[in-house]
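Fold this: Short-chain fatty acyl-CoA regulator family protein
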Amino acid sequence: MRAPIGLRISTRRKNLGLSQAALARNVEISPSYLNLIEANKRQVGGTLLQRIAAQLDISIDELTGEAEHRLIHELVETFADPAIADVGLGMETARSLVATQPDIARVIAKLYRAYVAASASADAYANRLRADPLLSQLLHQVLSGITAVRSSAEILEDVEDLSGADRARFVGSISRETRSLSAVAQNLIGQFDHASTVSKSASVRRELDDMIFAARNYFPALEQRGAEIARDMQESGALGEAAIAHLLETVHGVRVERNARPNSGRAFGHDAERGVLWFRNTVPQSTRQFQMVRLISELTSDSALTEAVKVPHLSSPTARHLARNYLASYIAGAALFPYDQFLNDAENLRYDVEALSERYNASFEQIAHRLVTLRAEGAEGVPFGFLRSDPAGRLTKHFPLPGLLLPHTGHACPLWALYAAFRSSGQLVRQVVRFSDGSRFLFVAKAVSRRASGFADQALPHSILLVTDILHADRTVYADGLDLGDSDADVPVGPTCRLCTRTDCISREEAPFAPGDEPTLTTVRS
């Protein structure tokens, strides 16, 4: 689904009244090569794309058509839904609709999101009604309570010669049963509310994606807030873990504790009532330091965070809460990895994540997080997308890359380096992939594990994936030794099995979406 970059360059150049020769001279290439680019016969990316964008006074996003890419992906996902798959709409329909009727395309995508959320809610309620033993017990209590109240009420109504003591006893019984019914009803409502909240998680995740995408994952006000926190820490001498912990306790009244907490189910947490930020003994120093700065960011940036989540993309308190948590981490990243310095180091080290980890005493994941935020206009880093997976293959964290369909939930393509990294734990895996539409990307993945606290502790790894368009790959150390112009060695992949059009893939785990075909329940491969 690659955007026609050459056509966009040609159109913009003509609108500005520039000749091919003039633009070619300004970007230091030959007119014949520019002619091939504008005819979409040559790929353009990296520093050359940046020079062309600067000469045309247009953002790289506009040249690559990233917003259109994302909308096309959403429509393809919509058309692949079993509810409408037999209509026969597909990729060409999506492209045509986005090109000719973008407003209608956006409405369709928005309606599909609402449909998915409503379906998830209905499924959650149905599952609880069918299978939840707690719900069954609550309903039984409601019926028993109603029966008891009705029996007492009938006795009071039908028996005229009840003594005062008996009448008081039955009235008391009705009072007790109704109070019990009230408590049970509140519990029952809570169970349904919980089901509804869980079912909305995918929709909320997409709203957060919309916010990140609209801002290009760059928030100037929060970058400034991070710089202020960094300056405050430097002035107080809080340049190491012990100093930051001292600042947290003396200024914010939060004590840092390290202990086992074997039954907590979490690696760290903030106990606001006790004024304690606690960590399990196995949490590494890089995580402890980041979480301390994150808490400082949260405690001192209420107004900045409140203002940042006042965007139309976030339609519910749950979405705003999730966004607020993400943005608090964003501020901490800006404080620990100052934008200009970090970008300069990233460029000098050619985006070597492990080298940056050593320089900043940070984890692989923390560095990867910061790399996806280097999108300040005029000072952009390589545009990266980000995914994290657990050992079961389930995606647990997601930051979108415009132009690439990254799954929101579930599992990605089994051929992605994200999963190959689990077979080489601790070793970095790189991969040049090609999607069925011809778009090519560089994948860089690594599986990392926390330390085990003891023999019985299961220290499960998780895999981190950074992905960038092949057009930018030459700016990274991970392109060394690769012939980026030779696509024959690319790994053919898809986004997910359901949305992949490669019918000859032996790694397929689910039947593909094919317009006009009936859904099949047969096993794809043995």
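The first strand starts at residue 255 and ends at 259. Confidence is low (pLDDT under 50) at residues 194-199, 515-526.
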